[in-house]
């Protein structure tokens, strides 16, 4: 298991290098001039040139990348062009609200997605299956921003049960987490149903029934573990998508998280913050995939030797 972990860990290095190069090029190809935004609309060319020199934007692009890479290897993400604070500090201030929102969304989405998928597979082609898949298709089809505004209108504006914006208490997490996790719950339900139906037709399931095992034992002892192998992979991928997909939800609910910070940074062409956030999202996604691979190998040990 240790060799498998080291092998997967070393495989992350080329991916991180490629992501770093692509992020740098993408950010510097964005339209707009950060120096002009910093100097103001009424600033003359001399002032803009001074600001550009101060920000290091007058250097050749390869030299800018080299300076950025050297700082990155020393753990320095740079300084925000807008607030003049370290990028690491800007990200740290917004990280926990986004992480807690993502975890809350993932927990309820996995629980309800697995339950709906399992019920739909056991009662296949009957009314529980049809109802569950109707909910799943609705969750996939309905845009997150529209669902968020609908929930806000009903539970905040009309009924007044829940707060509208902010992250000051646990009540603030309910509507954003429901909005963010709806699509994931729908995908998990469909994927669990498909995986469990495939497992239900295997020979060892029929053998367990022939030996007199109860239906409950057949489903949860023999079927669930094997059906969970592909589902675990999907859970990891969906968690990574949640971290990036929280941007829209954070804007709708004015959530003080990384998504809102990224939108503000793009509008202000704050290159260091954009690069730091995209790198963080990429690293999180790669790390989640590593953890999923390890969990996958723990469930199915044969994978370690492939």
From TrEMBL:
The chain crosses the membrane at residues 9-30, 99-122, 134-161, 173-191, 231-258, 278-299. GO terms for cellular component: plasma membrane. Residues 95-296 form the ABC transmembrane type-1 domain. One of its GO terms (biological process) is transmembrane transport. Part of the ABC transporter complex GsiABCD involved in glutathione import. Probably responsible for the translocation of the substrate across the membrane. The keyword Nuclease does not apply. The gene is gsiC. Keywords: Cell inner membrane, Cell membrane, Membrane, Transmembrane, Transmembrane helix, Transport. This is Glutathione transport system permease protein GsiC. It holds the Pfam family BPD_transp_1. PROSITE patterns: ABC_TM1 (PS50928). It is a multi-pass membrane protein. It is found in: Cell inner membrane; Cell membrane. InterPro entries: BPD_transp_1_N, MetI-like, MetI-like_sf. Belongs to the binding-protein-dependent transport system permease family.
């Amino acid at each position: 298991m240790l060799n498998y972990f080291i092998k997967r860990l070393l495989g992350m290095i080329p991916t991180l290098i490629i992501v770093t190069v692509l992020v740098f090029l993408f950010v510097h190809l964005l339209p707009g001039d950060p120096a002009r935004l910093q100097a103001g609309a009424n600033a003359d060319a001399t002032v803009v040139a001074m600001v550009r020199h101060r920000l290091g934007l007058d250097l050749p692009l390869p030299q800018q990348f080299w300076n950025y890479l050297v700082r990155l290897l020393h753990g320095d993400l740079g300084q925000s062009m807008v607030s003049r604070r370290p990028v690491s500090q800007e990200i740290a201030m917004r990280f926990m609200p986004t992480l807690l929102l993502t975890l809350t969304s993932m927990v309820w989405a996995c629980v309800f997605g697995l339950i709906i998928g399992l019920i739909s597979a056991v009662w296949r082609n009957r009314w529980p299956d049809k109802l569950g898949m109707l909910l799943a298709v609705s969750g996939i089809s309905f845009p997150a921003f529209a669902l968020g505004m609908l929930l806000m209108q009903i539970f905040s504006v009309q009924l007044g049960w829940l707060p509208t914006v902010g992250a000051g208490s646990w009540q603030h997490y309910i509507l954003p987490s429901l909005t963010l996790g709806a699509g994931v719950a729908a995908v998990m339900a469909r994927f669990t149903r498909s995986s469990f139906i495939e497992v239900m037709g295997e020979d060892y399931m029929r053998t367990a029934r022939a030996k007199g095992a109860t239906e409950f034992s057949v489903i949860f002892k023999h079927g669930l573990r094997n059906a969970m192998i592909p589902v675990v992979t999907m859970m990891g991928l969906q968690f990574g998508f949640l971290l990036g997909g929280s941007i829209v939800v954070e804007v709708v609910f004015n959530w003080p998280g990384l998504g809102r910070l990224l939108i503000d940074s793009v509008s202000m062409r704050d290159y260091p913050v954009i690069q730091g956030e995209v790198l963080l999202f990429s690293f999180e996604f790669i790390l989640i995939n590593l953890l999923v691979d390890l969990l996958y190998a723990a469930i199915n040990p044969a994978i370690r030797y492939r």
